[in-house]
What we know:
Chain A is of the alpha/beta class. Chain A has helices spanning 14-25, 74-78, 103-107, 146-159, 176-182, 196-211, 229-236, 249-256, 266-280, and strands at residues 2-6, 31-35, 50-62, 84-87, 90-93, 115-128, 131-138, 165-169, 187-192, 216-223, 241-246, 282-284, 290-292. Chain B is 26% helix and 24% strand. Chain B is globular and about 35 Å long. The model of chain B has no long low-confidence stretch (mean pLDDT 93). The chains are: A alpha/beta, B alpha/beta.
Amino acid sequence: MKIAIASGKGGTGKTTLSTNLASYIAESRECALSDLDVEEPNSGLFIKAELIHEEDKFKKIPEWEKSRCELCGNCQTVCNFNAVLKLGKMIMVFPELCHGCYACSELCPTGSLPMKQKKMGELKAYKSGNLNFIESRLIIGEEQAVPLIKQTIDYVDEHFSDEVIKIFDSPPGTSCPVIEATRDADFVILVTEPTPFGLHDLKLAVETVKQMGKPFAVVINRHGIGNDCVELYCKEDNIDIIASIPNDRLIAETYSRGDLLYPTIPSVKDAVRSISTYIDNFDLLDNGSLKSKKTGQIK
Amino acid sequence: MKIVFTAKGTDMDAAMDPRFGRTEYFVIFDEDTKSVESYDNRSIEGEAHGAGPKTAQKLAEYGAEVLVTGNGPGGNAATVLKTTGIAVYIGAGDMTVKEAYEAYKSGNLKTV
């Protein structure tokens, strides 16, 4: 089972929830937590585990070879990202804009844009008991998060069986990196804060996961601030709120020390236990949908 | 010599557009013939990525030698402009095109 923890709005508690939920689950069974916010991964601040593997990650980008090029301009026509431009008698490639789709390279009639390797980041894998932690980090100046997120998920797929609970700490927002981080998930947890701003971005996130056809539920963090707009919205739209974490100074203090919350804060333990129970209640069907063990309901 | 201005309109009285890649229009002033042309660049709104280099490419197609703009081009656009040999003058974002031309002529604009 793969669970993506996403949010829409940034700073709502994705990492807090991911690290605490993964560590809690790992007390009783094997769990793999992946930090897919590769532009600024921070789950690692809360996970004390031993480094067991590291590797460089590469993407492929086209490189212009002048000799055979007939300057037909097909490359710039097929590029959706303006990463390849024909300028007079030359072809310019902008590696930062390239999404590595191969279109220009494959469709070049003279084979003048071969794909070359370029390092984009690093992947590290850690282990502590039942908890596996995988973190990928883009190198400075690298703009494309998607290829690294994809390769990180590939690594997780190769190294962990279906029985292992996999938690993906996703990037914020609703753009390509989030889509990549959640597209393989069986279930998405949307973390929000109960404020008008939180609700606004939650709605965007809900729209996104609905379009992707993913079963999802909401967790409210910092419950007690703001108003009840998120609860009213979820009720109206029949969205399950599977846990609430209170707005508590002690949580902020513990977090700021880089400590996990659930071992010392009962309200957080209750929250991760509820989420774990909620997840355990589902069987993953072959067609990718979830079936409730209790009610038989399909999500 | 052709001088290109990033503008919010189509003539010399138009306000400058401080943005380069996503400028609404270019006003192209030919110093030799004193003619004024314009180019509608608003279709660039549909480009999620690479607006700068795309706009810079357009400029090269017009045979521009000088660009007068506001904030200045980003890295990718600057690379294209450099390759195509277009001189870039910035800091004219709050002017009209006519004022920007005068500021350029009197050497009051920064070059990058």
